[in-house]
Every structure is written in C-alpha cells, then in structure tokens.
Recover the amino acids of this structure.
C-alpha cells in the first residue's frame, strides 16, 4: 500500500526550497494541482534532488519528472537521485508546473513558485495550490498572488 504525505506538509513555508504538497491517488484527486514547490534557483540539478527525495520518502520512488524547459537552466535528460534513475522530460509549455510520476502511470502536478518570489506571495501561491478541489490553473494562481514568473533572463535568482 502506498503511504501518503503526512498532514504536517501543510504547515507554514518559511523560505525557498520548501515544499508544500497534497498528494493522493490519481482517482481520488479533484483539484487542478496536487501541491506546490518553491525552489531556491533555476538550477534543476541543484534543486530537483531535494524535491524527489522528499516525495520519495512518503511515496513509492519517483520515476519521471516533466518540466517547462523555458523555466530552467540546462535540463539533463536524467539524473540519479537516491540511487535511482529519474527521467526528465522537458517541454516549452510555460505552464508554471512540474509533473511528477511515481511508478508507471501515477502523475502529480505541482505549482512551481518562482525563486525570486517574495515570501508572502510565495506562501499565498502555495496555499492556493493545495486548496482542496480548486480548479485554478498554476499561471492564474501566480498572477493572483503576485508571484508571476519573470521573463526569461530577468529572474533574479
């Protein structure tokens, strides 16, 4: 049986690099997003291991990550994290999300809060992303909370 993330993950988020996630099985989820992630930078090789490790601690191992190629610096096609190969898919979608796959087909969508976001806006965006049943898309959450992604090359991280 798959272990779900504990309720403690809904507590306050003090700084970039923290993750707030609400994850369940795919047939039970109703919202547009399953959680949120606030990385410290746009360096995916420095940021992704801590997210994958945190999620893998409570779920089966993560097998694949889908990212917006325009939002990250130099994306590899795979990384070894905690002794396991994680495949990285990149697409120029501009949707402010990261897609996490565990096993063969269980997919989770997380809002990515831009690294330069002020703490109050980041906390508001992350709270909106985990609001049960919300159908608000990631881009709109970032706009509504003042956490919009900077244009490429203008990110201050």
């Amino acid at each position: 049986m798959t272990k779900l993330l504990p309720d403690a993950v809904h507590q306050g988020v003090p700084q970039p690099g923290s993750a707030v996630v609400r994850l369940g099985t795919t047939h039970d989820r109703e919202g547009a997003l399953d959680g949120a992630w606030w990385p410290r930078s746009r360096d995916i090789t420095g940021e992704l291991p801590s997210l994958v490790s945190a999620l893998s601690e409570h779920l089966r191992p993560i097998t694949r990550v889908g990212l917006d190629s325009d939002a990250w610096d130099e994306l590899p096609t795979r990384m070894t994290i905690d002794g396991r190969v994680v495949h990285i898919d990149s697409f120029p979608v501009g949707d402010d999300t990261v897609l996490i796959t565990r096993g063969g087909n269980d997919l989770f969508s997380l809002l990515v809060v831009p690294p330069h976001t002020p703490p109050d806006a980041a906390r508001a965006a992350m709270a909106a992303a985990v609001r049960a049943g919300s159908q608000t898309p990631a881009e709109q959450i970032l706009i509504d909370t003042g956490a919009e992604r900077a244009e490429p090359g203008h990110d201050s991280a």
